[in-house]
Amino acid sequence: MKNRSAAGALSIGAATDVGRVRTGNEDAFIAEPMVVGVADGMGGHQAGEVASAIAVQKMLEHLGGGATSVQSAEAAVVDANTAIFNGARNNAGQRGMGTTLTAMIVLADGAEGDTTRRFVLLNVGDSRTYRFRGGRLRRVTVDHSYVQELVSTGHITEVEARSHPRRNIVTRALGIEATIRVDTWVMPFVKGDRYLLCSDGLVDEVDDAEIAEVMAAHRDAQSAAQALVDAANTHGGRDNVTVVVVDVLDGDVASDDTADLDLDLVWSDLPNGDGTGNGSGDGIDADAEPTAATPDRGPITEEIPITQSGLSAPRKRFGFGTLVFWFGIAAIIIGAVTLVLAVRHNADSDPDPVPTTTSTTVATSTSTTTRPSTTVAASTAPAPTVP
Ligand code: MG
């Protein structure tokens, strides 16, 4: 089916900045008429830049003309995941690279004559998509992060999460595993809605209230995007910051500007080929308070899959403690083996009961032993003739 062009129905602005601390920008973004997105790369030695660039390139390649179905949009993410995963596996300098991705794609899967326009929203990781309607900012996506797990299970509050020392740890990202799970929503075009897609470099520096103020103060999408990047830098700019703002100029009229989001998370089987899809028919209210029972979210485990490159050094999949543990085990095994060999060696060193007269040295050494018996006999044997 031919995609209807969204040209004229959307106004898109985008801005990115390296920030005030870091030397390279590992963020990437898409700001095309039919697809927008933000990717926040992670991994040392510029590998994060490679990962986010691959994600953006794959989205453009598959979805530059929009999505014909939710599945086609998800398939693009799966392809991006595979490309990054294989790149990391085949290049030693890019091992462990990954990226977040949040993206909105214009969906055109209706029957002929159906003028309803909708978006597919995809999310993996802790970059975010917000909706701004009637002066009210609401987050649509749910972070795949360690601190989100803590918030969801009631251990910390959203406010505490913003300054938590482990807030850079993400629990899901493209390129880390051979397969990927994607959170997916489908939303209508509603005239007057504004969407904000951003990396964590914005939300770690600027709270939601200030984001809403900036969004309200700038009617133009591009100036709003730039103003948000500037705000992040004003607050410290400790990370790369990337913002995409999408204004919906045409579409349905919202029945209630202050209505809560009523978006259902779409569950579908991803074409990972190994049954690791999201499942089916098990919708989740995206606006509901997150709970520990949310099936989308994995349990907190000792082994955190990856670390987002951010304020702290990238975290290895095997920590220092694990290394020390295995070194200790190895030392114990080596010590035990050495002890056994030493005991056996000593046993073997005992003089042969048969006086074979190997050398004068042996005769001398056996004389020092405290053991009686045959050793003595050997030592008393006539000294060999040394040629
Ligand atoms: Mg970041």
Question: How does this model look, in words?
Answer:
It contains 10 helices and 13 strands. With 387 residues, the chain is of the alpha+beta class. 31% of the residues lie in helices and 18% in strands. 39% of the residues are buried. The chain has 2 domains: 2-285, PPM-type phosphatase domain (Phosphatase 2c, domain 1), CATH 3.60.40.10; 318-346. Mean pLDDT is 75; it is low at 1-5, 273-319 and 350-387. Helix 1 packs antiparallel against helix 2 (70-90) and helix 6 (208-217) packs antiparallel against helix 7. Strands 2, 3, 4, 5, 6, 9, 12 and 13 form an 8-stranded antiparallel β-sheet that branches. Strands 1-11-10-7-8 form a 5-stranded antiparallel β-sheet. Magnesium ion binds at residues 40, 199-201, 239-240, 310.
Strand tally is: 13
CATH architecture of the largest domain: 4-Layer Sandwich
Low confidence ranges = 1-5, 273-319, 350-387
Mean of residue pLDDT?
75
Helical amount = 25-40%
- Write down the Rg: 32 Å
Strand content of the residues, in percent? 15-25%
CATH topology of the largest domain: Phosphatase 2c, domain 1
Please name the fourth-level CATH homologous superfamily of the largest domain. Answer: PPM-type phosphatase domain
Helix-and-strand structural type: alpha+beta
Individual helix count:
10
Distance between the termini: 101 Å
Q: What is bound: which ligands?
A: magnesium ion
Task: Please give the largest β-sheet.
Answer: 8 strands, antiparallel
